[in-house]
Design brief:
Belongs to the Bfd family. Keywords: 2Fe-2S, Electron transport, Iron, Iron-sulfur, Metal-binding, Transport. The longest helix is centred in the C-terminal third of the chain and has 19 residues, at 42-60. The protein is built from three helices and two strands, in the order ββααα. It has one domain: BFD-like [2Fe-2S]-binding domain (Arc Repressor Mutant, subunit A). The protein is elongated and about 40 Å long. It has a two-stranded antiparallel ribbon with strand order 1-2. The chain has helices at residues 11-19, 25-32, 42-60; strands at 2-4, 9-10.
Length: 72
């Protein structure tokens, strides 16, 4: 689904950005441009970032040295 209509960014693109190394909403915003025009998408984009980071953290919980992520 489209999260940011101004930039044409989908929830899948946000998730992919996190899987590729973005560690916060700020990183996603800088890489995809989400939330930089009208700002109406910011709440939904942050929610997708939080959920995805939570999933990544859960999947890494079983690792000896889990990576740390922060939601901005």
């Amino acid at each position: 689904m489209y999260v940011c209509l101004c930039q044409g960014v989908t929830d899948g693109q946000i998730r992919e950005a996190i899987y590729e190394g973005c560690c916060s909403y700020r990183d996603v915003r800088e890489n995809l441009g989400v939330g930089t025009q009208c700002g109406k998408c910011a709440c939904l984009a942050k929610q997708v970032v939080r959920e995805t980071l939570g999933e990544v953290q859960s999947s890494q919980a079983s690792l000896a040295y889990p990576a740390g992520f922060a939601v901005a």
